[in-house]
TrEMBL record:
This is MTX1 protein. It comes from the Eukaryota. The gene is Mtx1. Residues 6-69 form the Metaxin glutathione S-transferase domain. It comes from Grallaria varia (variegated antpitta). GO terms for cellular component: SAM complex. The keyword Coiled coil does not apply.
């Protein structure tokens, strides 16, 4: 029953879209974002049971709708919703270096995060640094009151 209702919903969406580019004309609305967010994964994902996916693929206007949005707003992903994005991995499964400064950027990100956390800890009082302590040759500095008592 769930598949039947989902197929019916897809059919109704297809009928409502008709030959328009978007559901409410030539410009996208929040409904388009919502519908696309549900249709694109259904269209692109490899599913164990492809009944609903096959039904969606049979509704050409919804497939064209997804392809149009993908090419318009996600040009790096390609216009074909069924083709995967090209991978930078080599044929042996090793990752290619997409960004030559990737490692440096990761390290800088970690350092900035650590500095920010330490700064927050110091400013909020979670951690405090006490000045003073041991003087030269391992002796503790003498306070003014202790100095007077010794005389």
């Amino acid at each position: 029953q769930l598949y039947r209702e989902a197929r019916e919903c897809l059919t109704l969406l297809s009928q409502r879209l008709g030959s328009q580019k978007f559901f409410f004309g030539d410009s996208p609305a929040s409904l388009d974002a919502f519908v696309f967010s549900r249709l694109a994964p259904l269209l692109k994902a490899k599913l164990p049971n492809g009944k609903l996916q096959q039904h969606l693929k049979s509704l050409q206007n919804l497939c064209n709708y997804c392809t149009s949005i993908l090419s318009l707003y996600f040009p790096w992903d390609g216009a074909d919703p069924l083709a995967g994005a090209p991978r930078a991995a080599g044929t042996d499964g090793s990752e290619g270096e997409e960004d030559p400064h990737k490692r440096r950027n990761q390290l800088l990100s970690v350092l900035v995060g650590l500095v920010a956390m330490l700064g927050y800890a110091l400013l909020s009082g979670i951690v405090s640094i006490q000045r003073g302590g041991v003087g030269p040759a391992g002796r503790r500095p003498i306070a003014m009151e202790e100095e007077e008592e010794e005389e």
